[in-house]
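Subject: Sanity check before I submit

Could someone independently write out the structure tokens for this chain? I want to compare against mine line by line before I put it in a report. The sequence has 636 residues.
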Amino acid sequence: MGCCVFNVGNHYVHGLHLFQATSKIVALAKLGRITSARKLFDEIPHKDTVAWNAMLSGYSRLGLHQEVLCLFHRMRIANARPDDFTFTAMLSACADLGELRGGMKIHAQVVVSGCQSSLPVNNSLIHMYGKCLSALSARRVFEDMNCTNEVSWCSLLFAYTSYGLFDAARGVFDGMPKRTEIAWNIMISGYGQCGDVELCLGFFKKMQSDSHQPDQWTFSSLMNAFSELKEPFCGYMMHGFIIRSGWVKAVEVSNSIMSFYSKLGSHNDVVKVFESIGIRTQVSWNAMIDANMKIGDTHEALLAFQQAPEKNVVSWTSMITGYARNRHGEQSLSFFVDMMGNHIQPDDFTFGAVLHACSTLATLGHGKMIHGSIMRHGFHAYVYVGNGLVNMYAKCGDIQGSNSAFNDILEKDLVSWNTMLFGFGLHGLATQALELYEEMAVSGLKPDKVTFIGLLMTCSHLGLVEKGRALFESMVSVHGLFHEIEHVTCMVDLLGRGGYMAQARELVEEYSRTGQVETGLLEALLGACLAHSEVRMGANLGEYLKIFEPRKEMSYVLLSNLYCLSGQWKEAEMVRKTMADQGLKKMPGCSWIEVRNKMTVFVAGDHSHPYMEELYKILNFLKFEMRHPCFSGFKN
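---
Independent answer below. Compare away.
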């Protein structure tokens, strides 16, 4: 071993041997001083495989997986020979990054280097393929192994449950030489993630009857499963069970309980659990950020983000998602830019969130830049990201870009088809929307209730009454889907716009007999009355809505406009006075335009824009051109 001289911080360390330097790197990495560890590593003139592995393991332990890949690339350039420890660190990084292609390349290098008989490397390969949702590849590695252990079996079990192959998973579980608590937890977690709570609970009971004690991971999986249920009773009961079992202080369990109450919107319970946690992890802080964002308290969420000792991709994504959800699109975009500036690698959920922000702001320029970043990071093939791109382009007015993004999605899910269908409807392209629906049927994918909302809205806006009727009836007769309030409202709007007022009223009365009357349904009928000057019916509806929803301004506005249209000025004035007495104001109309990546907003009644006079001149000129196209060289 040679000696080396290097500098750590401001202190020069002389004469340390390579073994001592490597030990120092390991110690610094364990203390979280990864920058100092890397500085020490870089100053070692002649590194052996152990030194490279120490640095790789340090990065891997802290979840800095991208740095692991970059360092391995440097290791290859330096002609250092990788060993079992190198490959396990690399495969772990590929697994956590979802880098299937990178993991397959490492697999090839494992074979070339002769490490394919290593038990830890094979277990890491199975785990990597499982995390990257390639269950068949995981199975092939398992079958080629001469020697297996409990980790091998559990890794294969995880691969099957992650991919949703529960019959195969059950076969592996039943065939295990020895079932460990980890195996039981994998099955419980897998069933919980796919929403099968009954099987989840069934395995929990069998686990105890089989003399296996549940641990923090069992309870964490169960609480996460109950978080997805509409009714909270199971979650409440499990929380009580956890308290009695003594696991409530375990940080993983506390974090899952926080997430459960966060999804319920029970902010006070989240705060109580958070304050009771002795040692808070990143997950604890992320749950607190998410809970504050869910109740719309962006300020408290920001404080929690700033107070968190460490921030990972989930922390940043929670902020980006929360701001977008609370209609603070500009802050959402700003946080994404800051995240990239801090060299935090975004994931598919990050890109989905920031695309949502772009769609709410209708900023096409920003959306295209995000699209470029998605391509550079290799997330363009992810269906969740692809769906976000389809929605963003459609909402930003670029329907061709939306259609292109839709065609780029290799494995489209129902959300992909529905998003594109809504996009065509939003742009008034009824023919394309209906053709897409036919393509979807040919592909073998069954439409859901959201599909028919999009179709009926499209038919309504374009006056396709008969087509809308046929689709409405086919929901029950062909697809076995029951009509919900949204479908009935769309149908009332369609009939009302088409002038079929009696049929629209009959539909409202028919639905009212089967369930509670919804204001949206009556407002749709009132809007139709306004469009067709049906004063008597409209007046009755408006007066009913004033009593039914006295704090909602829409009914007052529609009723006042109806009275004005029929010349009943006194009645219109009385409605406006009642509205003023209630302290209600009409939401002013708003429009915006993006020029050179800058957004300009116009609000009805606001004349403060510095170029308002010039804008009015241009608008009047355009209005004249539209009314007299012959003066502009256009033909009828």
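---
OP: Matches mine. For the report I'm noting this point. Confidence is low (pLDDT under 50) at residues 1-15.
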